[in-house]
Amino acid sequence: MKNNRLLKFKKTLIFVSILFFSFQSEAKIKKTTINDAEFRDRVYACWLGKNIGGTLGMPFEGKTDLNNLTFYTNVKEGEPAANDDLDLQILWLKAMEENNYRVDAYILGEYWLKYVPVNWNEYGVGKINMKLGIMPPLSGEYNNAKWKTSNGAWIRSEIWACLAPGNPMLAAQFAWNDACVDHGCTDGTFAEIFTATLESAAFVEKDMNKLIQFALTTIPSDCRVAKAVNTAVEAKKGGMTWQQAREAVIKATEDLGWFQAPRNVAFTMIGWLYGENDFGKSICIAVNCGDDTDCTGATLGSILGIIYGTAIIPQKWKAPIGDGIKTVAVSGFEVPATLQVLTDKTVATQKKVAEFYQSTLKITTGKTAIPDSRSLLVADKKELAQIWQRSPYLISRGTDELTFTCDYAGTPEIQVGASKVLHFSITNKTKKEKNISLILKNVPSGYSVKGMHEGLLKISPNSNQDFSININVSTGEGNAIFTAELNDADKMLEMAIGIINLNAPKPPKIGKK
Questions:
Q1: Is residue 472 exposed (0-12), middle (13-18) or buried (19+ Cβ within 10 Å)?
Q2: Residue 427 pairs with which residues in a beta bridge?
Q3: Which among 101, 87, 98, 266 has a CA at the least distance from the CA of 174?
């Protein structure tokens, strides 16, 4: 009898143990999922919030006064304001579709030149540089002291969050490649990394304070964006009014002045911190802070849309502007007619991006299940350090097998009678030896190249080959755009390399918004 009881106890213990470990294993492998209808609603709310906030703020863009808005002031019935904040994201979606869901700064730069006719501020600087052969990230750094910390990049971050929901590190990589084209490696770029990672995280976390603190870990703690945002956060903690928080941010960014990213990102956070989770109140506070008002209102509208979906956006804010899209900064291709169409295209592209990058977050027909956002909201410091420390003077192109880099090691400028050294590196990422040929073509009159390797370069597996060349200019005829052509088994990779002749005529002045 005693043995039977003991046997029964052992069997029960084994069953309970199996059940316990079964539950533990299931918890470990439980995937993060978002219901597809919910995801679509949140993406649509992102674009709708963008249109609403942009339309609210557009009439006050660039004004430094404190505003007192509670609703739209100048709306044509059923028509949102045209806003480049949305335009450029539609273009980036096109670039993703046409490049197998993988883009880099170089590819985005090509789309700038082909489809963006305006030359506003940093947009114009980046485009002029690229036309001179100065490619990203140097295109956003060179001759751009006034605008490289401005607002052009962080206002176009939502597309990367929607394509990489719950994957902020991928969103950060996309954001860097986007922002550096017209902002180089500065606070203008850190600002987009901040908003992109926050918005990506917002698909799996709703807590405002957690989201802000997480996004702060994805940018350097000593950068001006981080300092401005922390000023706003501390003002709220200290019991200040939003007007006092605004003054604290203005004081903290006084040396940068108006129309700059650190101040305006912080103004956006003020709207969120003091908005009490009320959509209208939040975007109005952001816009009432002044400055780049269409951007602050639009970005906050998007953030709230991503977190809560259309449920947070009252009908009174939707009805006046309708569902249309009005563009101002792109041309030469067919833009989606409505936000609904844009949403469908975004969702379809996200599925392809998730497959290509093997995303752990799945959009499914089942229920939304986010077991623990902490496991997703992890800032990979090693990966981020590589982003933060990238040199603005180093441009590169690559394939799955090769990376080709040109390091200007400083300014791309050259004087007549002087020389400029360029450092090249070709990295073989495969497990087999590569035979590479490298040619520098289109050498213009008055320029000569010394030290160029002739013939094939044999590069061992998982290694790289470094060498330098010396460019000389003997006449003042003009600037040079060399074409570096890399050949690998009939696969050709080209990269433009621009040299600015200081004796050449000055490029045209850029336009302002």
A1: middle
A2: 403, 464
A3: 101
Cα–Cα distance list, 509 to 126, 131, 414 (Å): 12, 14, 21
Q: Crossing angle of helices 261-274/242-252, nearest 10°? A: 160
DSSP letters for 103-133: --HHHHHHHHHHH----BHHHHHHHHHHHTT
212 in Cβ contact with 229 (< 8 Å): yes
Q: Which two tokens stand for residue 305?
A: 């849309």
Tell me the backbone φ, ψ of residue 101, rounded to 5 degrees: 65, 20
User: If you ran DSSP here, which 8-state letter would residue 154 be given?
Assistant: G
Q: How far apart are CA 288 and CA 243, in angstroms?
A: 9
Sign (positive or negative) of CA dihedral 317, 320, 325, 327: negative
φ, ψ dihedrals at 305, nearest 5° = -65, -40
**pLDDT value for 374:** 72
Report the distance separating Cα 427 and Cα 495, nearest Å. Answer: 15
Place of tokens 């990506």: 200
What's at 180, amino acid-wise? C
Other Cβ atoms within 10 Å of 19 Cβ, number: 10
Angle in degrees, CA 79, 350, 358, rounded to 5: 165
Element (H, E) at 303: helix 293-308
Tokens of 280: 């209208």
- Report d(CA 184, CA 139) in Å as an integer: 7
- The answer to whether the pTM exceeds 0.85 is yes
Residue 497 reports pLDDT greater than 70? yes
User: Environment class of residue 20 by beta-carbon count within 10 Å: exposed (0-12), middle (13-18) or buried (19+)?
Assistant: exposed
For the chain, what's the residue count?
513
The DSSP letter of residue 464 is: E
3-state secondary structure string across 354-406: HHHCCCCEEEECCCCECCCHHHHCCCCHHHHHHHHCCCCCEEEEECCCEEEEE
Task: Convert the pLDDT of each residue in 294-321 to its tens digit.
Answer: 999 999 999 999 999 999 999 999 999 9
- Ramachandran class of 252: left when φ > 0, alpha when ψ lies in -120 to 50, beta otherwise: alpha
Q: Per residue in 364-373, pLDDT tens?
A: 999 999 987 7
Find out whether 485 and 441 touch, Cβ atoms under 8 Å.
yes
Query: 98: which 2 tokens?
Result: 């046409």
